[in-house]
Design brief:
The structure holds 2 protein chains of 2 kinds.
Chain A (H helix, E strand, L loop, with lengths): L1 E5 L5 H25 L4 H9 L1 H4 L3 H27 L7 H18 L8 H27 L3 H23 L24 E3 L4 E2 H19 L1 H11 L1 H6 L4 H25 L13 H11 L4 H24 L4 H18 L1 H4 E5 L6
Antiparallel strand pairs in A: 1-4, 2-3
Chain B lengths: L3 E12 L2 E12 L3 E5 L6 H8 L7 E6 L2 E2 L5 H6 L2 E4 L11 H7 L7 H14 L15 H13 L5 E5 L7 H16 L3 E6 L2 H7 L2 E6 L2 E6 L6 H9 L21 E8 L9 E8 L4 E5 L6 H9 L9 E3 L2 E2 L5 H6 L2 E4 L14 H9 L6 E2 L2 E2 L1 H14 L16 H13 L5 E5 L7 H16 L3 E5 L3 H7 L2 E6 L2 E2 L3 E2 L5 H7 L13
Parallel strand pairs in B: 3-8, 3-9, 6-7, 7-8, 13-20, 13-21, 16-19, 19-20
Antiparallel strand pairs in B: 1-2, 1-4, 4-5, 9-10, 11-12, 11-14, 14-15, 17-18, 21-22, 21-23
The chains are: A mainly alpha, B alpha/beta.
Chain lengths: ~350, ~500
Amino acid sequence: MLVLEKRPSPSRFWQYATPVLAVVLTMLAGGLLFAALGKDPFVAIRTIFWDPLFGEFAFYLRGQLLVKAGPLILIAVGLSLGFRAGIWNIGAEGQYIMGAIFGAGVGLAVFPTESRWIFPVMIVAGAFGGWLWSMIPAILKTRFNTNEILVSLMLVYVAQTILSKAATGFLRNPQGMGFPGSRNFSTYPAARNVELIAGSGMHWGVVAAFIAVIAAYVLLQRHMLGFQIKLAGQAPRAARFAGVQPTRLVVMCMGISGALAGLAGIFEVSGPAGQISIDFASGYGFTAIIVAFLGRLNPLGILLAGLVMALTYVGGEMASTNLGLPSAAIQAFQGMLLFFLLAVDLLSNYRIRLMTGRAA
Amino acid sequence: MTNELLRISGVTKAYPGVIANSDVSFSIAKGEIHALLGENGAGKSTLVKMIYGLVKPDSGTLHLHGQPYAPTRPSAARNAGVAMVFQHFSLFEALNVAENVALGMENPPPMRALAQKIRAVSEDYGLPLDPSRMVGDLSAGERQRVEIIRCLLQDPKLLIMDEPTSVLTPQEVEILFQTLRQLSAEGTAILYISHKLEEIRALCDEATILRRGKVVGTCTPRDVSARDMAEMMVGAVLTPPARAARKDWGDPQAALEVSGLSLASPIPFGTSLKDISFSVQRGEILGIAGVAGNGQDELLLALSGELRSAPDMVKCHGKPIGEAPPNARRAMGFVAAPEDRLGHAAAPDMSLVENALLSGAVRKDLTRNGFIDWAKTKVWAEEVVAQYDVRTPGTWVAARALSGGNLQKFLMGRELSQAPEVVIINQPTWGVDAAAAAFIRQEILNRAQDGAAVVVISQDLDDLLEVSDRFAALNEGRLTPTRPTEGLTVDEIGLMMGGAHGMEVAHHG
């Protein structure tokens, strides 16, 4: 009989080993899934995890890796702060969209003025848009005790509606022959998020993601606010004893995660995506939740997790074009990662012991 | 056949890192009241859990009625005639007494019959209890009666009672003892676990004393002094705390003044505070007694700042601070130690260093512009560990990994070593051994000597009688007028604590 036994203190080893184990288990279960779909599981796994890094088209795909990882890391770092404090912002996707709309709106409003201040102001506007959208669930929670999970999630659908209005209406390209979508920022140098090193995929959003990782690491390790965030999540009553104001913490955490999601949005729309379009929202805000947990809500972990998740995106696209795997199978594959992670997470607080069978 | 009911021979039980019981042997006769005496962590709980089928011994045997006895679960123990009243009740507050009793039975009779039975048993044993009352409305003493009656309905041969008097007033204790003596006279053996020596001397026929998992002695409690038993239990000679004469600080205003404090409890089924007034001068210690659940937690929250009141209800040196949050009060010199250690006073999964920061950041000046000085925090945490004799492998250990007594020592040290001006402590010596309790009391006296105004809230009358200058009791959220501690008798204290909740006559009918 297997017995779960609570460890006296959480295992250091398993805290680091569980994400790796989760990735391995996901590969195994994903392999079975692909085999059931009639594909060679080994080829599929290799296409997803190996080819983007070392395969034939790696020179191009490696760049894509940072492009995908940047927004994931940026959003996940923000989310992880709230998650640590027990504040569940599930609506980063909406904040990401609103950041893009606000930032792009500023850039498009001044088109075609040339000034080096335009891009920085767009960035600030993008962060503001995301922050504003996150303040709705934050204030409803602190004032009326609503559930931030539901409110933030439902606001994603509101944001998506506004996005389609923007693409087809108020931000539509006046010279776009009536097609939906805004002007493309690639034709507007003053507002363009350029690739900093050609072919690397490195743009200002990736730089911002790295800065966010470092800032969050310092915040959590050295700053009182980081300490209060951890305390509020682990022991709410002890947090009140320590003088943490729950209301202030909710506003801070929601605000930071919203602003970072907004930043990810504006960097994406002014760079890799290029324009506001109906299908601009690509699910980064939701995938970032998986990234945050895969990285154990630790900034450095999130950096690695963001890269791994980006790999499954890039490799997954390869697999669906080259092997004809349905994209839903790739999404299920990514979902499995969170599923296995939560399951094996048990090991850091419990050990499994084999009880030799004895008479009852 | 002998008169022996339960024999325990050579029982050993080890947990990872600690041996809870090592080669423990003793026996209990039919109808005997047998005390199991020892400090916290001596292995009493583990031993009774084995008798009650919650824990399986690694080696050694148990015999009941001369037959081998190895219960694998509590229901097997109950079928064999062993019942247990736990220190912490397992009752549903939103259900009534009869429903709660029915939940613990495997085949409960119809409610009406059960209520009848409860009434009959409660009258037979002088434990008045209305089966239709909601448990949420009962006092702690009454809740204990529900647990006892639940056991008595099974007609047990052996009744185990774990620290039963910690929630009772002196009068209620006397009623409980009469009930236990009656049970004993009818042939039910009682295994009575406690560290309160006078009670054991008053009640028990035999005592087995445990220290660090081993039997270190047996005695007939009536024939030895409490002091002798204490020294057997601790394994050392005890000295009571010394108190110097109080200095006059020449401060006309009270360091802490509470006037007309009324607050609704934020805790479900908690007790609201009703018009509480008292004041404490510098260098003075006010002891507040009371049975658990009479507003102690709420009073601490209101004084620490976790619960805000109208500004004038709490004053510090004449300054209204009722609305000040915890850290503003800390800046003014307040320290507070809540009763619930894991989860309230400390974060269970955080290290001792982090837990030191938790309440010490303000007064020990552990931050610069919001950035934490971990090196300084660690040094201070290590000082607390060394000074208060906290047994731990290091300050990196998670708070939950410490035993209750060790964590208590750490948390008391954390608060008392912040050079406080106002000290508020709930249950200062909960779970610590006699030597550590004496040390903590001495530290409290020392802080008062240094000029701090101290409020000690406790259910342990020894705490209060040894340290306090003045004495008051909390009863259903109200505070009695304060009286000088000197010259108070235990009877007077009991009456201040609410007597026996109007049931003194129970055994005279």
